[in-house]
Specification:
This protein is an alpha/beta fold. The chain is built from 10 helices and 20 strands. Helix 1 crosses helix 3. It is globular.
C-alpha cells in the first residue's frame, strides 16, 4: 500500500524476484523491427544504406540521416534485411521500420582499442555518436545530451540507478554485473560534459549498497531518499546544475570508447503477476514484445501489457510492438484496481505530493473548463509526468494526463471549432 507524503509518495516495491536474479540473454529472436529514423527523433527519417535481401552483421549501419547530422540506424542483430514495414508505436507514432530476419551466431568478446593518454571530449562524443548510444532515461541520443551540457549546463553528472518505480530493477542488474565499467563510463561522461564530477545514484538496502561500493576504486554511490519521485540525486546546492544519464548509457559509453562497440541491446525488467519467470533480460533493439514475453513465459493470459513501469508506462494492444531505446521495463498484469472516476473533491493531495510544487488539480480544472489563457501562470510545462498526482487522487481522476495535455494548450486563446465547411 502506498503512502502519500509531502512532495512525493512511498510506493510498494515489487522488484523481487527479478531484482535478485542475474541478467539472462534472450535465446532466440526470429525477427526485429528497427525504425528507419534518427535515434531519439523519430520525425527525422533515415535513408536505407542497404538493399533488400542484403546480409547484415550486428553493429552494421543500415540507415543514414536524410539531412544534417544524426545518429545512424545500427543493426542490433546478424541476419538478412527482409524489407520494411510501417507500424504505429504507442510512444513514437507512425514509423517505417527495417525488417531483419535474424541468424544466431556466437559473438566474440571485442579487444580493447589501443589509446595513449586521456580521452578528449570530442573523441568521447564521437564514439557515442558512432555507437548510436541512446540514454534509456529519456530516449535522447547521449552525444546530444553531453554536447548540450558542455557550455556550463552541467556542474555535476549523475548516473541514475535509483529505480524508483515499483517493478523496474534493470539498472540494479546492470550495476551488479558491470558496476566497474559503469563507473568508468561515468568518468568519460563527466569529461565529455565538462562537469566538475559525478557519481552513481542508487536506492538500495544497506548490505547490497556496501557490496557494490567495495567493488569501486573510490566511493561513488549516493543513496536517494525513498519517496517517489526523488528530488535530490547528489549532495549539491540548489544553484548547482545536476544532470542525469542512465547507467546503461554509461556502460555503453565505456564499451564504445574502449572497444569501439555499438549499442545494440538493452536490459529490461519483465515482471507482473502474469509472468512465469520475472527477470531482467538482455534483448536486441527491435525485438517484439511478444518475443520477450515468450522468453520469460506467461503463467496466465494477461489482461494488460504495459510498456514501461506501473506509474508512467503505456498499455499496449499490439504485442508485435518492438522494444526501442527508452524502454527498460515490461509488465504483464492480470488486472488492476482502479477507482471510479468522479469529480474533483478539492482535497489538495495532488498538490501535496507534486515534487515540482505545481497545482495539478487546478491545472486540470482550467483545462477542462477551456480557460486556456490561464494555464501559463500555472506552469504545466514544469510537469515531468511522474504520475504521483494521479496515484493519490481519491476521486480516481487521471490528473497527470490532464496536466500533460495542458502543456500543449498553455497560453492558447483561440479554439478550433471545426472545418469551415461545417459553418
Amino acid at each position: 500500500m502506498s503512502i502519500f507524503t509531502k512532495r512525493g509518495v512511498r510506493l510498494p516495491m515489487m522488484k523481487e524476484p527479478a531484482a535478485s536474479r542475474p541478467i539472462e540473454e534472450i535465446e532466440t529472436v526470429g525477427q526485429v523491427l528497427l525504425p528507419l529514423a534518427v535515434k531519439g527523433d523519430p520525425r527525422r527519417s533515415c535513408r536505407p544504406a542497404l538493399v533488400t535481401y542484403s546480409s547484415v552483421i550486428r553493429g552494421q549501419v543500415i540507415g543514414l540521416p536524410e539531412e544534417g547530422e544524426g545518429t545512424p540506424v545500427i543493426s542490433s542483430v546478424t541476419g538478412v534485411l527482409a524489407g520494411t514495414r510501417t507500424l504505429t508505436h504507442p510512444l513514437y507514432g507512425e514509423m517505417v521500420c527495417a525488417v531483419l530476419d535474424c541468424m544466431v551466431v556466437d559473438a566474440a568478446e571485442p579487444a580493447p582499442r589501443p589509446h595513449m593518454g586521456e580521452w578528449k571530449p570530442e573523441e568521447i562524443l564521437g564514439a557515442a555518436r558512432t555507437a548510436g548510444i541512446v540514454d534509456e532515461l529519456d530516449g535522447i541520443p547521449l552525444h546530444e545530451k553531453l554536447r548540450a551540457w558542455q557550455n556550463g549546463g552541467c556542474n555535476f553528472l549523475v548516473a541514475d540507478a535509483a529505480e524508483q518505480e515499483p517493478y523496474a530493477s534493470s539498472a540494479w542488474a546492470v550495476l551488479n554485473e558491470s558496476i566497474e565499467q559503469v563507473q568508468e563510463g561515468v568518468s568519460l561522461a563527466v569529461t565529455a560534459a565538462g562537469a566538475a564530477g559525478g557519481h552513481i545514484a542508487v536506492r538500495l538496502p544497506a548490505a547490497r549498497r556496501r557490496r557494490l561500493a567495495r567493488r569501486l576504486r573510490h566511493s561513488q554511490l549516493f543513496q536517494v531518499r525513498s519517496r517517489y519521485p526523488a528530488r535530490r540525486y547528489a549532495h549539491a546546492a540548489e544553484d548547482v546544475a545536476v544532470c542525469r544519464i542512465g547507467v546503461q548509457a554509461c556502460l555503453a559509453l565505456y564499451r564504445a570508447v574502449v572497444y569501439g562497440e555499438p549499442q545494440c541491446d538493452v536490459v529490461i525488467t519483465v515482471a507482473g503477476d502474469a509472468v512465469a519467470t520475472p527477470q531482467n533480460i538482455r534483448v536486441p533493439f527491435g525485438t517484439g514484445v511478444h518475443q520477450v514475453l515468450r522468453a520469460c513465459g506467461l503463467s496466465v493470459d494477461p489482461d494488460y501489457v504495459v510498456l514501461g513501469d506501473a506509474m508512467t508506462g503505456v498499455a499496449i494492444q499490439d504485442l508485435e510492438i518492438p522494444v526501442l531505446p527508452g524502454i527498460t521495463c515490461l509488465l504483464a498484469l492480470t488486472g488492476r484496481k482502479t477507482a471510479v472516476s468522479r469529480p474533483c473533491i478539492g482535497c489538495g493531495r495532488c498538490a501535496q505530493v507534486c515534487h515540482a510544487g505545481l497545482l495539478p488539480g487546478e491545472i486540470a480544472a482550467q483545462l477542462e473548463n477551456m480557460h486556456y489563457e490561464r494555464l501559463s501562470v500555472l506552469l504545466p510545462g514544469e510537469c515531468d509526468g511522474c504520475g504521483a498526482c494521479s496515484h493519490v487522487c481519491p476521486a480516481g481522476r487521471d490528473v497527470a494526463v490532464r496536466v500533460m495535455e495542458a502543456q500543449d494548450n498553455a497560453g492558447t486563446i483561440f479554439l478550433n471549432w471545426g472545418d469551415d465547411d461545417d459553418a
